[in-house]
Design a protein that fits this description.
It contains 24 helices and 27 strands. It is an alpha/beta fold and 643 residues long. Helix 2 (36-49) packs across helix 5 and helix 12 (302-312) runs parallel beside helix 15. The longest helix has 16 residues, at 73-88. The structure holds alpha-methylisocitric acid and iron/sulfur cluster (SF4). Alpha-methylisocitric acid binds next to helix 2.
């Protein structure tokens, strides 16, 4: 039987291992992407590893996350990134050029090729038929040296799309609907492959929205086929020559299959504080709203913002609503300008902000205390927006615009008027002048501001570990909980300063306790429930705890990218065998791992005991031999250096 398309692309890029669910495979990518929030660390790592050696392949770093410039640190980081890009022969996309995933979709993605990106939403490119996989920063630095990238091959679920969307119902509603259906199962280690007659009815921008939010389900990646719609999109970007056909097999060995009848999808909303708390907008009721924000890599395309302009045309944003519109890229902004749509948005009383992540990552536009903020972005973990007691609701651009007009959460069908009809340009305004190519020859000096600090080296894992449980957590702890972004993005290049904010929203005394143990050479241990490390790829959520002396995390389950980040930075991820064991361990318990190194090497189980409380438990690890070696060396940098 044929292979799923995802496996076919992997096979074309495979350098080691076997392709099949749960197998560790080594792959080499065609393209590599970083962004400023993860990129400063990528280049600090790369400086330690040596050279970038991706001859003939595209590597690019976007500046889109960290742009507010509250103090000199952001600008210093941008200069560091620009000079490091020139030094390592990497393209640099200046702040203002747009959100990386969307610019990449417009200008660089190629169907059938493989893209690695130090950001969880790089999967947006799946909308173009490109296989895109999110990684941690250190893994990306290693890939930049030309070494293979290792990851666990997912099991593939086929999603059959049938029929077509009804007026006012959108791609965002489709993915929220799918999240609602699949969230209760553990999706880590799976991928989604879209097929069926419904695909042809969706534009590339719509497919990209759907592929983008696979990240919120925890799937490794999502892939659409490429077809005439893809070709038309690429031709409008003057890139028809890069078009390749990616077909979905009629029959293949899929691990699972679901069907979505597009005609039955209605406007949906994800309620605070999780993208999987999904209900139809009409069921959520007419909640009063103080802020509406349109944009982000999920819904910042012309397809999205253009429709918002049409809905706002001749209307007024409700007096009690602060409306923000952040066109996803400079190209989107120019298209809006050229077609007069900016007039509609500004005329209605919305404020237009930069083409960056901005509100989505809490870098500006934090809602007021207790506010309801309705957003078109992908994540609404508590506090991510910058205000812990605000409630963020995730919706489509159409629902956002209707809500802005009415001042209450509104199903756009209740506007009782025809849905907006947007004509997408046959040729977008193309201008790549904000992407700076590296110089072909000559040495470039890397400029470092005072806030840029080299991460400190890790020690090897001790064979016998003595520690204490410093924090016991519940389910679904996101990386935003572990390490907030927003205002603290300026510390992405400074682990000692950033680590001071670890778990600050959950337990403000965590850092002091962890530092005290670290001084006394007691290992810090954390216990968590299901889905630990959901969300972002930020490796700082592993590096900062490790800097504070966290050496082991025992959880019921981990998210994929975060689990790799833990391993690569020398924190051992262990898993409970049952809920009883989770209940057994209590905060402050002293914990001993008497044979951790030997057990990691020789067995699938690891012994934990509490000499004071007198209990002993077995926990499992499920790590590959390579991962165990990385952990024993104290992380991937040491592992690479030792070879
Ligand atoms: C996010 O959406 O959480 C981010 C910010 O884009 C992150 C990356 C980061 O924290 O730098 C992601 O999704 O990987
Ligand atoms: Fe940026 Fe938000 Fe997209 Fe992350 S999810 S890349 S912060 S726009």
């Amino acid at each position: 039987m044929a292979l799923p398309a995802i496996y076919q692309i992997l096979q074309d890029h495979q350098v080691s291992g076997n392709i099949g669910p749960g197998e560790e495979v080594g792959i080499r990518a065609d393209q590599v992407l970083a962004q400023d929030g993860t990129g400063t660390m990528v280049f600090l790592h790369l400086g330690k590893l040596g050279k970038s050696r991706l001859r003939g392949k595209l590597a690019i770093c976007y500046v889109d996350h960290n742009t507010l410039g509250e103090g000199p640190e952001n600008a210093d980081d941008h200069r560091f990134l620009q000079t490091a890009c020139a030094h390592f022969k990497i393209h640099f996309s200046k702040p203002g050029n747009g959100i990386g995933h969307l610019v990449h979709l417009e200008r660089f993605g190629v169907p059938g090729q493989l893209l690695l990106g130090a950001d969880s939403h790089v999967t947006t490119l799946g909308g173009l038929g490109m296989l895109a996989i999110g990684t941690g920063g250190l893994e990306l630095a290693v890939a930049l040296t030309g070494a293979p990238h290792y990851f666990v091959c997912p099991a593939v679920t086929r999603v059959l799309l049938r029929g077509r969307l009804r007026p006012w119902c959108t791609a965002k509603d489709v993915i929220l609907h799918i999240i609602g259906r699949l969230a209760s199962r553990n999706n880590v280690g799976t991928a989604l492959e879209y097929a069926g007659g419904g695909v042809a009815t969706l534009s590339v921008a719509q497919r990209a929205t759907i592929a983008n939010m696979g990240a919120e389900l925890g799937v490794t990646t999502s892939l659409f086929p490429s077809d005439v719609v893809t070709h038309t999109f690429m031709a409008a970007q003057a890139r028809a020559r890069s078009y390749r056909r990616v077909r979905m097999p009629k029959k293949a060995e899929y691990a699972d299959e679901i069907e979505v009848e597009l005609g039955q999808v209605v406007p949906m909303v994800a309620l605070p504080h999780s993208p999987d708390k999904v209900v139809p907008v009409r069921e959520a009721g007419g909640i009063e709203v103080q802020q509406v924000a349109v944009g982000s890599c999920t819904n910042g395309a012309f397809h999205d913002v253009g429709k918002v302009a049409l809905i706002l045309r001749r209307g007024r944003v409700h007096p009690n609503v602060d409306m923000i519109v952040a066109p996803g890229t400079r190209q989107v902004l120019r298209t809006l300008m050229e077609r007069g749509y900016l007039k509609d948005i500004v005329g209605a009383g919305a404020r237009v902000t930069e083409s960056v992540c901005g509100f989505c990552i809490g870098n500006g536009q934090a809602p007021g205390h207790g506010w309801v903020s309705v957003r078109t972005s992908s994540r609404n973990y508590q506090g991510r927006c910058g205000t812990r007691d605000a409630g963020v609701y995730l919706v489509s651009p159409e629902t956002a615009a209707a809500t802005a007009l009415r001042g209450v959460l509104t199903d756009p069908r209740d506007l009782k008027r025809p849905a907006p009809r947007l004509t997408v340009p046959r040729r977008f305004p193309i201008d790549d002048s904000m992407v700076i190519a590296p110089p072909k020859q000559g040495k470039v000096e890397v400029v470092r501001g005072p806030n840029i600090v080299d991460p400190s080296p890790n020690q090897r894992l001790e064979p016998h570990l003595l520690g204490q449980l410093v924090l016991k957590l519940g389910d679904n702890i996101s990386t935003d909980d572990i390490l907030p972004a927003g205002r603290w993005l300026k510390y992405r290049s400074n682990v000692p300063a950033y680590s001071q904010h670890t778990f600050q929203g959950i337990d403000p005394r965590f850092v002091a306790r962890a530092e005290k143990n670290k001084k006394s050479a007691i290992a810090n241990i954390i216990v968590a429930g299901d889905g630990y490390g959901a969300g972002s790829s930020r490796e700082h959520a592993a590096m900062c705890p490790r800097y504070l002396g966290v050496l082991v995390i025992i959880a019921k389950s981990f998210e994929r990218i975060h689990a790799s980040n833990l391993i690569n930075h020398g924190i051992v991820p262990l898993q409970f065998m049952d809920s009883r064991s989770y209940g057994r361990i209590q905060p402050d318990d002293d914990l001993e791992f008497p044979w951790i190194v030997t057990e990691l090497k020789r067995s699938s189980l690891v012994t934990v005991r509490s000499p004071e409380k007198g209990y002993e438990l077995k926990v499992k690890h499920g790590l590959s031999r390579r991962q165990v070696e990385i952990l024993i060396e104290g992380g991937l940098l040491n592992y690479v250096a030792s070879r």
